[in-house]
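User: Can you write out an input/output pair for a complex, sequences first and structure second?

Assistant: Here is one pair. Inputs:
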Amino acid sequence: MRIFLDTANISQIRQGVKLGVISGVTTNPSLVSKEGLKDYKAIVKEICSLVPGPVSAEVVVNETEAMLKQAREIATWAANVVVKIPSTTQGLEVISVLAKENIKVNMTLCFTLNQAILGALAGAAYVSPFVGRLDDISHDGMALVKDIVDVFKNYKLKTEVLAASIRHPQHCVAAAKAGAHIATVPYQVLMQMMQHPLTDAGIARFLADWQRVQRQQR
Ligand code: G3P
């Protein structure tokens, strides 16, 4: 499984990339506005320059022609940009046109297996089931991830499953077990993934023992 960072925060992206485990970034209009960033194009271009892999940037219009126009424009911003298109009927039409133009799409706001199948058939490079938002309304978000993975495998569909709306480290574990190709995680979750109190306690004990031996040798 690959890990993407789900953020538009430049310092978080720089920090995450330094760890050598981040192979892409996903953004959405809420994440971009959270950073108070005015120049959408400039921020997406900067993120694309920092990350070796795909960077998802979302369209902010809903009508077919307007989405197509905006998606084509976003696709020119960087070689590694991926356009995020919502899971709607208009979105499907847009995805199928963009796929023919070799523009990579991440079909976002995916909440059902049917949406995922149609997105894959239209030619999306990625579909993004929103795990946390399904959990929020008492559905099993990770069961959807697993269903999509299984069906895509059954029919040899090339679209990758990008587990999104990840809220905590246990979601990452479950996404890996479900066979998601990618989990996109907030920076805080990335940090939590590496933490364990026994690791901290083990380091403290090793250092204390080491210092005791040093003192005895003096
Ligand atoms: O990747 C989609 C993600 O940003 C949505 O997360 O926590 O707003 O549901 P959340």
